[in-house]
Amino acid sequence: MTANPTTAPLLQMTGIVKEFPGVRALDGVDLDVRPGEVHCLLGQNGAGKSTLIKVLSGFHQPDEGTITWDGQETPFSTPAKAIEHGVATIYQELDLVPHLDVTENVFLGHEVARAGFSQRAQARKRVRELLARLGHPEISPTRIVDELSPAAQQVVSMARALSRNTRMLVLDEPSAVLDQEGVTNLFRVIRDLTEEGVAVVYISHRLEEIREIGDRITVLKDGRTVATGLAVADTPTAELIRLMTGRSIEYVFPPRPATAPDRGAAVLEVRDLSLAGVFTGVDLTVHAGEIVGLAGLVGAGRSEIIETVYGARRASSGEVSIDGKRVRRGSVTSAVRAGMGLAPEERKSQGLLLDEAVFKNITVSSMTRFARLGFLNRGEERRRSAELTASLDVRPDGVTRAVRTLSGGNQQKIVLARWLLRDCRVLLLDEPTRGVDVGARSEIYQLIRSLADRGVAVVVVSSEIEEVLGLADRVLVVREGEVVHESAATELDEAKVLDLVMEGKVHA
Amino acid sequence: MSQDTARVEQAALETDREPNKLLGLLRTSVGRNAGLVVALLLICIVGAITAGDRFTSTDNALTILRLAATIGVVSIGMTFVIIGGGIDLSVGAIVALSSVWCTTVSTQTMAADTHWSVMVLVALMVGAGCGLINGLLIAYGNIVPFIMTLAMLASARGLAEIISDKKTQILGADGADVSGFKDFFNREILGVDVQIWVFVLVAVIGWILLNRTTFGRRTVAVGGNPEAARLAGINVKRHTVYLYVLVGVCAGIAALLLVAKTTTGTSTHGNLYELDAIAAVVIGGTLLTGGRGTIVGTVLGVLIFQTLTNIFVLNNRSFSEQQLFKGVIIVAAVLLQQRLASRSST
Fold this sequence. Notes:
The complex is a heterodimer of chains A (508) and B (346).
Chain A: E1 11-20, E2 23-33, E3 38-42, H1 49-56, E4 64-69, E5 72-73, H2 79-84, E6 87-90, H3 102-106, E7 113-114, E8 117-118, H4 120-133, H5 150-163, E9 168-172, H6 180-195, E10 199-203, H7 207-213, E11 216-221, E12 224-231, H8 237-245, E13 266-275, E14 279-287, E15 291-295, H9 302-309, E16 317-322, E17 325-326, H10 332-338, E18 340-343, H11 347-351, H12 358-363, E19 371-372, E20 375-376, H13 378-391, H14 408-421, E21 426-430, H15 438-453, E22 457-461, H16 465-471, E23 474-479, E24 482-488, H17 494-503
Parallel strand pairs in A: 3-10, 3-11, 6-9, 9-10, 15-22, 15-23, 18-21, 21-22
Antiparallel strand pairs in A: 1-2, 1-4, 4-5, 7-8, 11-12, 13-14, 13-16, 16-17, 19-20, 23-24
Helix pairs in contact in A: 4-5, 13-14, 14-15
Chain B: H1 3-15, H2 19-28, H3 34-51, H4 53-56, H5 58-83, H6 91-101, H7 105-113, H8 117-139, H9 145-164, E1 169-170, H10 179-186, E2 188-189, E3 192-193, H11 194-212, H12 214-224, H13 226-231, H14 236-262, E4 264-265, H15 273-283, H16 295-314, H17 319-345
Antiparallel strand pairs in B: 1-4, 2-3
Helix pairs in contact in B: 1-2, 2-3, 3-16, 3-17, 5-11, 5-12, 5-14, 5-15, 5-16, 6-8, 6-9, 6-14, 7-8, 8-9, 8-14, 10-14, 11-12, 12-14, 15-16, 16-17
């Protein structure tokens, strides 16, 4: 919006090729970024976005192609070189040192020091200024980073980027850890920066964000640039999806069943569940075949509620029962035995054994079914897993490959396959489409609905209001640890949910 | 884990007595253990050159294996604990306590009155008991494994000193006739000592347990990603307890081998076994961070160290030189292994 089309590009990448053993991750990528613009990078998982970022931040060296920085051909041979030229990258997996405090993290690698002695007071003062500029004066410069929320950690990463002379800021899915308010604040900061002439490379799966903040778009597919320099304002969403997927698809939610599922038998019943200091008095009933959505801000207690229902956190009071039978408090093993399954928020760190084979990840919760006297029937395990991955269209197929090699959407399918195999009665899904690209999302939605149609009681937690409204039959809005609203999804719209989430009531 | 590794392990265990056959076999080995095989091969060549027939004889191969048996059994148990994300520093002390407990006058008298297997039972129970205490306090008391087993290291050896009054307890003292025990463990079956058979048996059972059972699968899951394992419904705490009991039992078995071999039980048995076992496991390619490791690798690691010791002894080199070289071998083997691993992946 502020970019002047005649401005010379700050960064120009031409014909970038990067090969890893057995994979051509980048196969001729062109990208030009102008000072003062927000350049969005779009592409499905595995399209090469992450590799491209690593090339332009100096982590990887391209095998072919040229990088021109500020009019001069410049090889970014090390991360230090890239930083020196003013490239700051904020990765999806934040790269902070968990046990150091905020100030130490911000100035890591370029400490404020005189004659080797760090000048702590001065450093803290500068950090305070940076945090205020980022709209988060409440974060203390002396807090240990580990104790901060992911959203606050991202702010610290931003502060680190701003503490240097940054000319280009690269943001990899920054909104994934943010709530609505955080995103608004992030956009304000981005606008401030672009006004000062800083170039921003913005990566996100959320097209509506790109609409709001982006100036131009480059689309990657299979390691190639399929379109570059598209003006955001002139490019319809359908066109973007077509470019990314190579086919025309709609961002669709499966239709709800004709008969209201809440007339079925109640499967999951939660009574007056509380977790001291986090949430209180949660009642929740989910019927067979029903999808219940939990909406709310990050930090409102949504994830904690389903983790407590699952027994991963020990409830301070209240009870959970399945088919009328009480589940032991604070025991995941009992919850799983009673028929519950959880697809956790952090799929990689909480959900999967990344280096293990697909089939082992699928059978891990139903191992005893494949065992006789403790001996596993591995042929049977592979056969059943292969059936499931085929029916869920996991790509690439092959149940002995490590889960790490799959994309986010396919990894999520593996987690779902695990509970499918167990025939679970209650499925708890925490952010089921985080890190899942647009193409695979509809498939995940379809899959969740078909599970419900088979009689599974499903609870979905999501930060995306659209997702909760589109997918769920019934919606509960959580605000500051309390359920403030409950109704059929069809009775709500995005504006109403926003009001509930922010204020706890609907404006007249 | 492929069938190849199964075959390699099986073959390695069965043919180690024949160094020449062994050399042939090692050349065909592939994959993760290739670095170790090369290292072992080089050591064997050095042995053959420096000590000639004295090294290459079948008798000498059996000697190596006999000496490898005790530490080998402990290392198999250690492999499980480390794959499961833990560590056990107390194995040597547990060996000492087990050896002392099963050779007390009262145990020996009882064994003489009934059957020598009483001593076996006592040693295994002591090992399992120490492991149980380790496991319970680590899993449910949330004590870091390093600290808990360090405490057990001190306490178990202390208790062994108290029970034995710091004296060496001799098998068959006070007229208790436990020759059955001695005879059993020092017998030969098919020309191979029972001690070696015990090691083979423990290694094979260990391999099956790790690669073919729910127990092994859970061990890898718990060590690889404890949070994911917990959320998948695995009882991580209980499994952790099982792992420490398992290594405790292995220490008990090692104690029996030692008692039979030395005909004594003393509080100094098993000194520094924890370090030898960890070294063997680590150069065997098992990640100290947990989640990945092999029994074959551990067996190779044990053999490397024992063969090395053997060559030093045959060449009349000092223990100090041997220690120095051991350190070099740890670094060299790991470096070599990494190099081979990265090459095979491209």
